[in-house]
Amino acid sequence: MADALATMASMFKIGANTEIQPIYVQIKNLPAHVMSVEDEVDENPWYFDILQYIKQQVYPEHATEVDKRTLRRMVAGYFLSGETLYKKGRDGTLMRCVDSAEARKILEEVHGGSYGSHASGHRMARQIMRAGYYWLTLETDCIGHVRKCHKCQEHGDYIHVPPNPLHVITSPWPFSMWGIDFIGMITPKASNGH
């Protein structure tokens, strides 16, 4: 412990009488609320806990105090209208929360559907949010969808080719860069007589 304090004192320049509190690391047995969702394993959408809290003020079972506090903090950014949950945007717009099945349909339609332009992942995420849809992993899913799109990979730019600068040659008048040298007669003649 004294060696660790001496090392820290040399790194941070602390006084000799300063007391440093140790850092404790804890591992939780139950999952906490995180901002990533792959698939719905329990047949409930990703926003189910938020919806239940807004409707009935009910916490999920096995929720700790930290989970409850996190859920209360998250709920402030959502709005319930009838049975439809909306996410409040930064500019005050409401975006409808969708589950993973509907999110896949939206991704396919916006990217390559009748109005799809095969846009990049970030641009496609902005288009979806502007259309009024939201899910937690929106941007990650958009980038992943673009990476898996066969047409985008086939017709995309060659990103691993080094750039070649273009050298434009301008000529003030035709043939100004061409020249002819006159050297006179060449002796001896070539083998073919020229």
UniProtKB/TrEMBL annotation:
According to the entry, every stretch annotated as the Integrase zinc-binding domain falls at: 98-155
Specify the protein name.
Answer: Integrase zinc-binding domain-containing protein
In its UniProt entry, the species of origin is given as Corchorus capsularis (Jute)
- Which Pfam families does UniProt cross-reference here? Integrase_H2C2
